[in-house]
Amino acid sequence: MGSLSNKRVILGVTGGIAAYKSAELIRCLQGEGAEVRVVMTPAATEFITPLTLQALSGNPVNLELLDTAAEAAMGHIELARWADLILIAPASADFIARLCHGEGNDLLSTVCLASHSPIAIAPAMNKHMWENNATQNNLQQLRAQTVHIFGPATGYQACGDVGEGRMEDPTTLARMTGSLFEKGLLSGKKVVITAGPTREALDPVRYISNHSSGKMGYALAQAAMEAGATTILISGPVQIAPPERVKIIAVESAENMLSAALDELDGTDIFIAAAAVADYRPASVAEQKIKKNDDDMFIQLVKNPDIVATIAAHPKRPLTIGFAAETENLEHYAKQKLQNKKLDLVIANDVSDSTIGFNSDDNRVLLVESGGSKKLPIMNKNLLATRLIEHIASLSKTSQP
């Protein structure tokens, strides 16, 4: 992935002959990692069909402000919230004027008014329209409103004139769009994270499990995505809304989780084993519900596969990070896990403290690696996840899996 990895871009297309370049621009934005949705003005549809841009973007093209079906869900507000950036290319002189004066008489201008995301425009018009004082005054006001102006370029124009006013080349526009975002610490990386508990079945209605909520693993997936990584979250059963722009693979048992991890291993740069995997499972699973009787019941357990150790020992081994949930001797057991399983980092936390760890929104961890240990203060799991991803990103630059 490129400079727009995990970014959502609304491409606004206005009326002008340069609208034909929007088709290539979609591909260029996608090539940089962006998801693209297109909003067209009525005039734009006279130059290029919505069907073309829908086929290229993979999303329905948005056309009408007063679309009954869309407006039932406040469609223009949803679009404004969806976007990380609005890029208008081509931006006609007419649209630039309307944007400058805050008009909202079509879908595209209304989305711009409703959005808090950055807006960039790629002007495209005849050189005399570009040089006109009214256009230049409008551009000056837009710059004061922190609207980004991309171009225009100089060259031959459709009308036969030669001069300034051509829309910038699509590849240049995609690069300029990417430059508006700080490059993510994990851009171009594939990160696989396990989260939550596993359930080991006793019979069709009962299972062995643990108290893991999955909050830490889900927060790490969100942070990895925001850092630009292609993120896969292999999740046991949890009651958490999935992070956006993260591929979710739902599993039940430890064996399911290992199988999913191995399936995703190809091309993985970083593997983070945040799941609380059951160490043991019943030796056999009853086909029917086990009935209660007056006798004691004994369950034979067998060891589950060790997921993080399996990944660390794999020929395609990525940078491998484990978690250690302990109730005593935290640093001692974390160091043992680091050495015995040949991990690059162990993130250890004391789950005997009921105010942190399992089911809590906060956590306090100890980072254990070959160079030593480092305590992090108690903090919200979302903030902690960001700190951990920053640390893991620095490890990925210096460590050789």
Describe the protein:
With 401 residues, the chain is of the alpha/beta class. It folds into 2 domains: 8-178, Rossmann fold; 190-398, Rossmann fold, CATH 3.40.50.10300. It contains 14 helices and 21 strands. The protein has helices spanning 21-31, 50-57, 68-71, 75-82, 93-100, 107-114, 127-131, 133-144, 170-178, 215-226, 254-263, 307-312, 330-340, 381-398, and strands spanning 8-13, 35-40, 85-91, 119-123, 148-149, 153-156, 162-166, 190-195, 200-201, 207-208, 230-235, 247-250, 270-273, 280-282, 301-303, 319-326, 345-350, 362-363, 366-369, 372-375, 379-380. The strands form 6 sheets. It has an 8-stranded mixed beta sheet with strand order 12-11-8-13-16-17-19-20, with helices on both faces. It has a 5-stranded parallel beta sheet with strand order 2-1-3-4-5, with helices on both faces. Helix 1 (21-31) packs parallel to helix 2, helix 4 packs across helix 6 (107-114) and helix 10 crosses helix 14. The radius of gyration is 27 Å and the shape is elongated. The chain starts with 7 loop residues before the first strand and ends with a helix.
